[in-house]
Amino acid sequence: MSKTKTLDLTCGPIFKxxxxxxxxxxxxxxxxxxxxxxxMAWIGMxxxxxxxxxxxxxxxxxxxxxxxxxxxxxxQVNVAQCCGRNDTEEATHYASCALQLTIVFSxxxxxxxxxxxxxxxxxxxxxxxxxxxxxxxxxxxxxxxILFSFLSLTLTGLFTxxxxxxxxxxxxxxxxxxxxxxxxxxxxxxGPFPRLEAMGAAIATVTAQxxxxxxxxxxxxxxxxxxNILKHVKLFSLSPRKYYRSICRIGIPTALQSSLxxxxxxxxxxxxxxxGAAAVATQRVGGQIESLSWNTAxxxxxxxxxxxxxxxxxxxxxxxxxxxxxxxxxxxxxxxxISAAFIFLPTPISRLFxxxxxxxxxxxxxxxxxxxxxxxxxxxxxxxxxxSGLGKTxxxxxxxxxxTGARIPLAMFLTSxxxxxxxxxxxxxxxSIAKGILFYLTFKYTERKL
Length: 450
Hints:
Elements: H1 14-43, H2 48-84, H3 88-115, H4 117-122, H5 129-144, H6 147-161, H7 166-189, H8 198-220, H9 241-273, H10 277-313, H11 317-344, H12 346-351, H13 357-371, H14 374-389, H15 393-405, H16 407-419, H17 421-447
C-alpha cells in the first residue's frame, strides 16, 4: 500500500501546492453540504413542523462547534506552525493537548445540554407540539453523543495542519454514504426498519459522525499513514502548561466567535418563529442550501489556514501573499455562480425541499435576498482562515462578533418599518457584505506588515 501523501506547504509551486491541499478539503465540504441536504430532503417529507423542530434542535449541535473550536483551531494553527519549523516534538505535544481538551469539552457539553434541555428549548417559543417533540428527540441523541462530532472536527484540523487533507475527505465520504443509506431507512421506515422520523434523523447523523471519527482514528495506525505525528500522541499524559496556554490563546477567540455567532442566530430564530413554523423551516433549510457556498469557502479557508501557518512558521511571507491572492480569485468566481443560482432559480431550488406553497414562497424570497451576499461571505471565510493561520484569531473575532451582532438591531429596525420577515433576511445580507469588505481590507493591511 502506498503511503498517504502529506504536503510540505512551504515550497513548490503555490497554485499546485495549495490546490492539492484545498481540493480534498473542498470535496469534504461538498460532502458536508450533500450530507446536510440529504437530511433535509428526507426530513422535508415529514412536513415543515418536523423540519422546524429538528432545525431548532440542530442549533445546539451548531453551538457545540463553537465549543470544540477552541481545541480544534488552537491545535491546528500550532501544529501547522510547528510543521513549518520541522519541530515534530512540539507538534506532537500540541496535538495531544488538543485531543485531550476535545474529549473533556465533549463530556461537559453533553451534560449541559441534557440537564438544561427544557429551558434551552423554551427560548425558541415553539408553540406547536409536533415541532417541540422533534426538537427534544433530536437534541437528546445528537448532543448526548457529541463526542463523535468533536473528535471528527479536531482530527480533521490536525490532519490538515500536517498537509494531509485526503484522509479527512475519505472519512467524510464514508460517513456521507452511511448517512444517505440510513436516512430513508430510519426516518421513513423502509422495509423492516421502523418509522422513527426525528429519532431516525438523529441516529443517522450520529452514526455518520462515528464513522468519520473511526476512519481517521484507524488510519493513524496504518502503515500507509507515513510520518503522522498523531501516532505519537499521548492522551493520558499531561503536557507542560505552555502548550495548553498556547492552544487557549489562539483557540479561545475562535470559540467565542463561533459560539456567539450561533447565539445571535438563535436570537434571530426566536424572532423568525413569530412568523410561523414555515419561516423557521425556511431558515433551517435555507441555511443548508446556502452551505453550497459556506462549506466550500470554509473548506478553502481551512486549507489556507494550514498553508499560511506553515509558511508563517518558515518565515515565507511572499508565499502567504500569493496564496491568498490565488484563493481570492477562485472563491470570488464560485461565490458569483452561487449568487446567480440563488437569484435566478430560487423557486426550483426551494421546491426540492418544500411541498407547501407558503414554505416555497418564503424560501424563494430568502434565497434571492441572500444571493446578493454570497461573494462577500466567501471572501470573509477564506480571510478568517488566512488571518487565523497568522495567529490573529482575536482580530478575526472582534470583527466578526461586532458585525454579526449588528444583525439583531438591524433586523429589529427593518421589521419595524414594515419589511416583515424579509427585513431579517436583509439584515443577514447587509452584515455579510460588510464583513467581506472589512476582512479583505484587514488582510491587505496585515500583509503589508509581514
